[in-house]
Amino acid sequence: xxxxxxxxxxxxxxxxxxxxxxxxxxxxxxxxxxxxxxxxxxxxxxxxxxxxxxxxxxxxxxxxxxxxxxxxxxxxxxxxxxxxxxxxxxxxxxxxxxxxxxxxxxxxxxxxxxxxxxxxxxxxxxxxxxxxxxxxxxxxxxxxxxxxxxxxxxxxxxxxxxxxxxxxxxxxxxxxxxxxxxxxxxxxxxxxxxxxxxxxxxxxxxxxxxxxxxxxxxxxxxxxxxxxxxxxxxxxxxxxxxxxxxxxxxxxxxxxxxxxxxxxxx
Amino acid sequence: xxxxxxxxxxxxxxxxxxxxxxxxxxxxxxxxxxxxxxxxxxxxxxxxxxxxxxxxxxxxxxxxxxxxxxxxxxxxxxxxxxxxxxxxxxxxxxxxxxxxxxxxxxxxxxxxxxxxxxxxxxxxxxxxxxxxxxxxxxxxxxxxxxxxxxxxxxxxxxxxxxxxxxxxxxxxxxxxxxxxxxxxxxxxxxxxxxxxxxxxxxxxxxxxxxxxxxxxxxxxxxxxxxxxxxxxxxxxxxxxxxxxxxxxxxxxxxxxxxxxxxxxxxxxxxxxxxxxxxxxxxxxxxxxxxxxxxxxxxxxxxxxxxxxxxxxx
Amino acid sequence: xxxxxxxxxxxxxxxxxxxxxxxxxxxxxxxxxxxxxxxxxxxxxxxxxxxxxxxxxxxxxxxxxxxxxxxxxxxxxxxxxxxxxxxxxxxxxxxxxxxxxxxxxxxxxxxxxxxxxxxxxxxxxxxxxxxxxxxxxxxxxxxxxxxxxxxxxxxxxxxxxxxxxxxxxxxxxxxxxxxxxxxxxxxxxxxxxxxxxxxxxxxxxxxxxxxxxxxxxxxxxxxxxxxxxxxxxxxxxxxxxxxxxxxxxxxxxxxxxxxxxxxxxxxxxxxxxxxxxxxxxxxxxxxxxxxxxxxxxxxxxxxxxxxxxxxxxxxxxxxxxxxxxxxxxxxxxxxxxxxxxxxxxxxxxxxxxxxxxxxxxxxxxxxxxxxxxxxxxxxxxxxxxxxxxxxxxxxxxxxxxxxxxxxxxxxxxxxxxxxxxxxxxxxxxxxxxxxxxxxxxxxxxxxxxxxxxxxxxxxxxxxxxxxxxxxxxxxxxxxxxxxxxxxxxxxxxxxxxxxxxxxxxxxxxxxxxxxxxxxxxxxxxxxxxxxxxxxxxxxxxxxxxxxxxxxxxxxxxxxxxxxxxxxxxxxxxxxxxxxxxxxxxxxxxxxxxxxxxxxxxxxxxxxxxxxxxxxxxxxxxxxxxxxxxxxxxxxxxxxxxxxxxxxxxxxxxxxxxxxxxxxxxxxxxxxxxxxxxxxxxxxx
Lengths: 266, 313, 684
What we know:
The complex is a heterotrimer of chains A (about 270), B (about 325) and C (about 675).
Chain A: H1 2-13, E1 36-38, H2 49-53, E2 59-60, E3 68-70, H3 79-83, E4 89-91, E5 106-107, H4 123-129, E6 133-139, H5 145-151, E7 165-167, E8 176-180, H6 185-197, E9 203-207, H7 209-213, E10 235-237, H8 244-254
Parallel strand pairs in A: 6-7, 6-8, 8-9, 9-10
Antiparallel strand pairs in A: 1-4, 2-3, 3-5
Chain B: H1 3-31, H2 41-51, E1 54-57, H3 62-81, H4 97-116, H5 121-152, H6 157-166, H7 174-190, H8 209-213, H9 218-243, H10 255-282, H11 291-311
Helix pairs in contact in B: 1-9, 1-10, 2-9, 3-4, 3-9, 4-5, 5-6, 5-7, 5-11, 6-9, 7-9, 7-11, 9-10
Chain C: H1 3-27, H2 32-59, E1 69-70, E2 82-83, H3 87-110, H4 120-139, H5 143-161, H6 168-199, H7 204-207, H8 216-234, H9 243-249, H10 252-277, H11 283-305, H12 310-337, H13 341-376, H14 392-405, H15 412-427, H16 438-465, H17 472-475, H18 482-500, H19 502-516, H20 522-525, E3 526-527, E4 532-534, E5 542-543, H21 545-554, H22 557-566, E6 572-575, H23 593-596, H24 598-603, H25 605-608, E7 611-618, E8 625-633, H26 637-657, H27 665-683
Antiparallel strand pairs in C: 1-2, 3-4, 4-5, 7-8
Helix pairs in contact in C: 1-2, 1-4, 2-3, 2-4, 3-4, 3-10, 3-13, 3-18, 4-5, 4-10, 5-6, 5-10, 6-8, 6-9, 8-10, 9-10, 9-12, 10-12, 10-13, 11-12, 11-16, 12-13, 12-15, 12-16, 13-14, 13-15, 13-18, 14-16, 14-18, 15-16, 15-18
């Protein structure tokens, strides 16, 4: 009987959800180098090898400092890692990338070799959203890779629902927006109306290089170079696309749920 | 009217209703091989909705803000008329099963109006479908109830429960089993569960109950959701305590009997929730125009139940 | 002074007021405002006298001992203008008087819309005439007077229906009403003749309990004749086709009166004939009435759902509610047959209470529709919307009416349906034959009707009053003048009181049931000092509408506490409706009335047989249409299957018979000769 077989099969399979964050994080795939680390001290004086190979001008050699790597514009293609003769830019293999402020994504200054990771929301919002956060996803004109990796969080292996985080159908039910894509001109009105439809207090989460700074589409006349141009963003999750683990880490770190599972912030 | 019993039953309703929804969600997740939200997640959701601001559409009238209170209060009132742990229910004098069905219809009326008020196409669609399906489900519900009422010679819920309690073999009486089956299908329809409606869907064109709630936010949404879960609890309690009043404490029972009754009630609720979870997991949502076929099948079951009383009397 | 005299005097005052209203309205035709005020003011006064007369008669029990008195001596033999205010007549007299008051006050404001292009005085005069005739129908004590009043009622109703005779639709509706009414009257005349034959006189006193003395076959024929005759007037399926045509085209105060009272004359007639005249009924009478009632109820509401004309929708709902009343009456007949007078009284009370309730809430709804028509000049729901913000009081009144007609607690519709359910359920135990299955099945169909009615009124109220206005008329609507609101307000108060205090009104039914079935039930049905309504037997079902209303208020602190605990600092912002980020919602994007009922149209396809026509015009490719015309049409199954073939048969037969009108003088002379021969032979 169908019902009988289905039930037996499901019960035999058991729980397929990963233990993280109560257990170790799943390993990143080989091609994923994780967060980047910049040691400006190793930079040579008139070397601009990394600048030449970067497709989105994420790494620059501004006059006031040796080198600046903006992880918000970075596509994590690792060309700069290969191009650097001194190994100033390295991959750490760390999946944690989310930050609260845009300036925290710019590496290169002394003391800023690595990302200063996202802290928790302010107390009032933390108390409100800690156990129950509902998000409205807005896909603002990107390639859909970030949406796909966000969608993966709803599958049985990741199970976002166990943290009380849920994607909802109506912005009226939502506590915030999760924006992906560079916000094309065609999606500007939709994004603004969606934000206006969310009741306060609300947060905005920008996922992916496009939503933070325009990604591969940066500078194009038909895009707005990221959601930060139009809305106040509370959480930036860089990547192209960010690994689901990165997105999950960012979300639960924002809610301050990471401490309970016995892991410390970096 | 027993005031302590009324207050206690009110508290039980308010606290238990979200938990039942949470348990069903959690067990559904478990059967889908994932951990799922905790059963008490629903409480956190409700508390958060209550604390949030509201955004109200410019096209709505006072009916929009009035509806959540009608839905919430009518559901609570029906809960007080249905015996949960103790016979008779605190407000059993104020109405029996007909008043319960009538009050639930009152809540549904205003819920549907709340869907039409914001001038949104989704809300109108939800209202239209909700009213249609509840109309088709009503004859099956009433016929199943009448079958029991006829045997008990009363529409008073305590009488119906007592009459089923009196003879144990009555529990396996064909009339009762068929009426129970019919009412189970109606329960699925009225609480918006698969195969009639998918409570977790995001596609507006597949929504029935959710579509009417798309414009609600903040505490209005909290009252709507809470009211819906109270209605679900009331219908489940109706189903359980009328057809399987095992362990239900009679009038004048002592604390021990009440404790046993409460445990029995919770056990029965969990069993019924498990049945709902199994049905939701092993079935797909029906196309909208296949649902009347399902509800007609429920009506046929109820008619058969009625005919069975005939044969066995 | 004897109570009987008191009510008799008041009655005469009421009738006099109506006559004065007719005369006054006609006299002051030229001065519109005066005609309006005089005509409807006197009608209201007559109504007030009528209410007091009938209610006091019922309350003090004088109704059972009432004697008939002659209004004024008549010079024609056999005809006696006698009135008898017995319990049944008083009850219906109270209904018509209550409605008369509310509707007359409403008309004072409504008729202002006719100033300048129609004759308000004529409207007032015919309105008074209709009230007068209807009151006389209920109080007449002999068949002749009854028929005279009946015809007067039909004629004045015809004149009122055809008031706006400039439109072809109105003229046709009037003619249809006229024809159907006279078909019914014909059956009534035959029925009364048969009763006269058995009794020897025309008085209703003589007809009392006549049925037991008549041979069974003749009794059945009498029953059928009266069922058809009164059924036409009541709007019983399949004799109802005039209702959805006539009610929408009449002025709204007239529609309210027709739906509220005129169709109840059919119920009065049936109750009078079945319970007073024909003695103990055989079972098949009750079964027939119950079945016809159930079918009327279900079909009435199904066709109502397909309508987007507000008044036609309400007309179909009248058919539905007449069905519910007939269910109560049919059940009562069945209980009388099986020897359960208590249950018969319960069913009778359920049916008659629903008569009163329906009169009140249907009139309220029609007055609301009239207010909408007055403000927006359209009955088409598809052009309305957003009136809740522009016509606040009318919205509230219509909402009360909608909740009442959907049988939702704690209003009056719920109470009478509850009583009907109780009588049906208790009926299961009255017999052991298969017939008893009818009771729960009828109950299930009653539940279906109630739920479909709720769906229909969500549609009617939601599409008309909520959302955005779908047209300019709706956008520019303004609240109606005060008399119209007052008239609606009176009926709202009546709905609320009838719903919250049923036990008080039950006392009024005692003389009625005592007269018709010999039982008095108000004691049995009341519990807890009148706060709880019981279904009769001990341990039976109980309901308390005041309790429900009170508890809903008492539970209000629960959400308010939650608000205070959690949401005190939460704010509210007004924003646009969520439109998925589009440029904005236009009124055309809302759900329409036709769209709302589409699922039901699909589910009941076999009954409705919807016809859909799409015509498109295009220049070079059908995918780039320049003009699109969509028509969706549902025609009543009775029209297509019964009346249209019938009409065709009649016309065909008459065309054949036309051959007799040969036109030649010789042929006519032969006809006369042959007839003369035949009569001479017959005389031999």
